[in-house]
Amino acid sequence: MENTVIKTLNQEHIDEVLKINALSFPDPWHKNSFEKELKNNFAHYIIALNENVLVGYAGIWIIVDEAHIISIAVHPEYRGAGISNKLMSKLIEICIENKVPNITLEVRKSNIKAQNLYRKFGFLEEGQRKKYYSDGEDALIMWKRNMI
Length: 148
Fold this sequence. Notes:
This protein has four helices and seven strands, in the order βααβββαβαββ. With 148 residues, the protein is α+β, with helices and mostly antiparallel strands. The protein has a seven-stranded mixed β-sheet, sandwiched between helices. β2 (43-50) and β3 (53-63) form a beta hairpin.
């Protein structure tokens, strides 16, 4: 979506982020979790706005020389429009600006669409976490290394 703008998440966006989170994940976060992330010095959260409608968000933690993607989600009505690509590009840009060479994440073994997104951006599978999710599903551990 050409009109999509990426901005920093702030308190006024939390309720819309919660809606997308609930539509996107089987075990969604509570409001206080997002509010704590706004105060977390390691956390960087961004939102995607399309014509002033919040359509997606993403979050990353940066600790020393490593980043961990916490979450990427797009409202179901806007999926397939390139919003996750814009969010992912911005997360990588944030890492490069902060001189962070490596990014990691966990993704559900069944979430092929997300895995394809990450692979498109150069992430490679480097391991698994057995029964990582609350429902017992395994997670793939993916890394993008040596960005700087």
